[in-house]
Automatic annotation (TrEMBL):
Keywords attached to this entry: 4Fe-4S, Chaperone, Cytoplasm, Heme, Iron, Iron-sulfur, Metal-binding, S-adenosyl-L-methionine
Described function: Probably acts as a heme chaperone, transferring heme to an unknown acceptor. Binds one molecule of heme per monomer, possibly covalently. Binds 1 [4Fe-4S] cluster. The cluster is coordinated with 3 cysteines and an exchangeable S-adenosyl-L-methionine.
Domain HTH cro/C1-type: 251-289
Localization: Cytoplasm
Domain Radical SAM core: 1-222
InterPro entries, A to Z: Aldolase_TIM (IPR013785), Coproporphyrinogen-III_oxidase (IPR034505), Cro/C1-type_HTH (IPR001387), Elp3/MiaA/NifB-like_rSAM (IPR006638), HemW-like (IPR004559), rSAM (IPR007197), rSAM_sf (IPR058240)
KW Iron-sulfur (keyword) present: yes
Reported cofactor(s): [4Fe-4S] cluster
Family: Belongs to the anaerobic coproporphyrinogen-III oxidase family. HemW subfamily.
Organism whose genome encodes this protein: Arcobacter roscoffensis
SMART domains named among the record's database cross-references: Elp3
Name of the molecule in the record: Heme chaperone HemW
Keyword S-adenosyl-L-methionine assigned: yes
Database matches in Pfam families: Radical_SAM (PF04055)
Length: 355
């Protein structure tokens, strides 16, 4: 199974960010980490150990994990160590502003194998427009440091579809990224979500499917293969095993305020409030998923990536629709799985089959 750890602290709140993160709760960091370790220990002992499971991958996300000093993660790594699969992939997100050489080296020495930088752009005007706190130089330096330290995988996040973006300006961002020692690229289309500064400002987003296709094609020419709608890797070994686990509908622990877990057919939601989480990190809301819910998720997720979907989950009516899509060359069947040829159509194809 997988393990996700959520760090809800940020130096600044990006204008598009809807994640559970705070810029005014830094005084609660130590109490939060104590509560996090309490939840982690409880779930490791009461589910992972009890059911003889292994942790295949770990992902420390946020928020900004690099706002927590590396030595404050030591007890977390001690707790998970007995349950880790050999050669487990361990990823941390990081902000170029706070991911100093010392912080990265400290995390590497604790066992982190992969690092993901929230760069979003190398254009200063765009960074300012998005509310990012770093600059292009700090992003470049952070990635170079990660390579010097010896991380096995280095990811760079880039956002596109922002007001003013063109294929030419995006090529400049990607060219800068590809000039650096990255092994993985995540190219996300800007989404406007409720509760963000960009909400009710639809003009900040460009909806241009043709631009998306041109971007995907350009990334491919640089030797990066698309294996999910937003994710590209230099080689198969650099694909995110943790993300693949989600897409394959594996079980995962969600540790921290606002994290999400999933096991025993239940989605598990710890409270989002940092204060309430510190008070009781074991107060977790459950949402039971039925077989139809699971089928829908497997189809939607499988069509968004190169994993595909097993035909055995579909009923007779759905299989007839699948045959139609195969005939019109929208999807393809290999052995007992179906694969989507065009990730941008993933939701439409899945909804057609299940509708």
């Amino acid at each position: 199974m997988l393990l996700y750890i959520h760090i809800p602290f940020c130096d600044s709140k990006c204008f598009y960010c809807a994640f559970n993160s705070y810029t005014d709760r830094f005084h609660l960091k130590q109490q939060y980490m104590q509560a996090l370790k309490k939840q982690l220990k409880h779930e490791l002992q009461n589910y992972v150990e009890k059911n003889n499971k292994e942790i295949e991958t770990v992902f420390i996300g946020g928020g900004t994990p690099s706002t927590i000093k590396f030595h404050e993660y030591e007890e977390v790594f001690e707790l998970i160590k007995p349950y880790l699969k050999k050669d487990a992939e361990i990823t941390t997100e990081a902000n170029p502003n706070s991911a100093s050489f010392d912080w990265q080296k400290g995390m590497f020495d604790l066992g982190v194998t992969r690092i993901s930088f929230g760069v979003q752009s190398f254009h200063q005007d765009k960074l300012k427009f998005l509310g990012r706190s770093h600059n292009s130089k700090s992003a470049i330096k952070a990635i170079q440091n990660a390579n010097c330290i010896g991380f096995n995988g280095i990811n760079c996040d880039i956002i596109y579809g922002v007001q003013g973006d063109t294929l030419s300006s995006m090529k400049e961002d990607f060219d800068t990224a590809f000039s650096l020692p990255i092994t993985h690229l995540s190219a996300y289309s800007l989404t406007i979500e409720e509760g963000t500064k960009f909400f009710d400002r639809s003009s900040v987003k460009i909806d241009d499917e043709e631009l998306s296709k041109e971007i995907f094609d350009y990334i491919h020419t640089k030797g990066f293969t698309q294996y999910e709608i937003s994710n590209f890797a230099r080689a198969k070994e650099f694909e995110s095993k943790h993300n693949y686990g989600y897409w394959e509908h594996k079980e995962y622990l969600g540790i921290g305020a606002g994290a999400v877990g999933y096991y025993e057919n239940n989605r598990r939601y710890p409270t989002k409030s940092i204060e309430e989480y510190i008070e009781n990190p074991l107060n977790i809301e459950l949402e039971e998923l039925n077989l139809e819910d699971i089928k829908t998720e497997k189809t939607l997720l499988g069509f968004r990536c190169s994993n595909g979907v097993d035909l055995s989950i579909f009923n007779e009516k759905e299989l007839e629709k699948i045959e139609d899509l195969i005939e019109y060359e929208k999807i393809e069947k290999i052995d007992n799985r179906i694969y989507n040829k065009e990730f941008l159509l993933s939701d439409e194809l899945a909804l057609y089959i299940l509708g």
